[in-house]
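Hey, weird one. I pasted the 2-octaprenylphenol hydroxylase sequence into the form twice and got a warning about non-standard characters only the second time. First submission, copied straight from the form history:
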Amino acid sequence: MRIFRLLKIQSVAFRFGLDEFFFNYGRLRFLQKPVRWLTFWRQLERPRSERLRLALEALGPIFVKFGQMLSTRRDMLPHDISDELAKLQDQVPPFSSELALATLETAYGKKINEVFLEFDTKPIASASVAQVHLAVLHDGTEVAIKILRPGIAPIIAHDVALMDTGAWLAEALWPDGKRLKLRQVVSEFARHIDDELDLIREASNCSQLRRNFQDSSLLFVPEVYWDYCHSNVMVMERVKGVPISHVETLRAQNTDIPQLARMGVEIFFTQVFRDGYFHADMHPGNIFVGEDGRYIAVDFGIMGTLSDEDKNYLALNFLAFFRRDYGRVAQAHVEAGWAPKNTRIDDFEAAIRAVCEPIFDKPLKQISFGRILLQLFRASREFNVEIQPQLVLLQKTLLNIEGLGRDLDPDLDLWKTAKPFLENWMAEQIGFRGLASRLQKEAPNWTTMLPQFPRLIHQALIENRAQVLEEKMTDLLAEEKRQNRLLALIALLLTALLLWQVFLP
C-alpha cells in the first residue's frame, strides 16, 4: 500500500510540474529545459505557486498542513509562494453539503431540523481535516459546527505510514538520522494527528484552554456545547472577529497593531510557562481579533503539553539567552542530557554565541529565522545534541508566532517583549513566591499524609526489623549447613581411620 501512495505522490508532483523547484537551482539546473521538452504535453501555464498549492491539496491533509506551516515562513519563501500557500489555512475545497448533512443526521439519529432551528449548508471555512458550518439552536443560540471529513482517517494513516518509512530509511542511511530521532518525531506527529480525528478530544482541549484563560484580557476561547458533540461533530459558540491576517482591515478599525503583536507573544509565553498547555496550530487561519481587541482562538485539534522539567529547562535557556549568557545555555544542554557529558562547554558556548549574537537588538524584519535555524542545526550536529521529540510542537508553534509577529509588526523586538514576562515567571518559580506557591499546592497532600507518618514509620521499622531478622536467620541456616558438612566430613575421616586400623594386616 505504501508503494502505491509513493507512486501517487510522484505522479501528482510530476503532473503539477513541481520538478521546477528542483531543477531551477544548483547543479541540476541544466536538466530544466530537457525535462520541459520531454514533457511538452503537461499544462503548466498556471504560476508555480498556484501549482504547488493545488498539488498539496491533491495529496491530502498532511501535505496541506505542511503547506500551512510553510505559509507562515515569509522570510524563507518567495512572496508569491507564501501568499498562495496562505489560502490553505481556510480555503481548502469543501466536501459536499449532502455529505455534511448525512454525517450530522447519522451522528444525531434525527433529521437536521429536529436538532437545529437553522443550518447553513454552505461552509464558512474548510480545512484539511474538517469544515465548519453555521447554525442556530432551538433556543436561539448561534453556534459553529465542525464536521470531520468523511473517509479521512485511512488517507492520513497511509501518509503517516509513508512518513515513518521515510524516517526509518533516513535513520538507517543518514548519519544524523538517529541523533534527530526522526521516527520519534513522526510518532509524535502521528499521535497529534490522531487527536485531530477525534472531535470529542478537540472539544475537551477547547474546554481546558477556555478554563485557563477564563476572564482573560488577552485571549477568548469559545464555549463547547457538549450535548451536541460526537467523535466526528463538534458544536461550539459562534465567534465573530477579523482574521488576524487581514491587517489593513484591523488598521481601519483603529486596532493598535504593535500592541496586538506584543499580546500574541505574551499569550504564547503564558500558555507555555504558566500552564504548560498550548495551542500548537496557531497559523493565521485559526486566529481572529474580536471587537474588544482580544485574540480569538479556534481549531483545538493539536495541543502541546510540557512537563515541569521541560518548562524549567526552557525558561533557564530563554533567560540565559536574553541575558547573552551563552555559557549557561551550553551548560543547561549538558545538564539536561541533551548534549554528551564530555562536551567542551567553552567550545559549545562559542558556537552558540556565533549564531545568536548577530540577531540581538534587531527587529523581526532584520532577522532571518530560517538562516538561524540552519546555523543552530549545524551547531547541534557538531556537538551531537539530541533533538527532543516532545518539543517539536513547541518549535513549530514558536515559528508560527514569529510569523504572525512579522506580519503584524515587523519592528517588534521579540526579545524585549518576552524577557520581562520570563523574568517574572522565574521569580515566581525560584524565589520566595515560588516556594510559597509550591507549599500551598502541596498542602492538601501533606494534611492527608502527616497523620499517617507515625503508623508508616512504625510499619517501616517492623518491616526493617523483620528483614534484618530474616537475613540473620538465613545466615544462621547457611552457617549450620556449613558446620553439618564439616562434621560429616570429620565423621567420614574417623570412620575411614578406624577401618584402616582394624583391617591393617
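That's the output from the first submission. The warning seems to come from a hidden character in my clipboard, not from the data itself. The mean pLDDT is 77.
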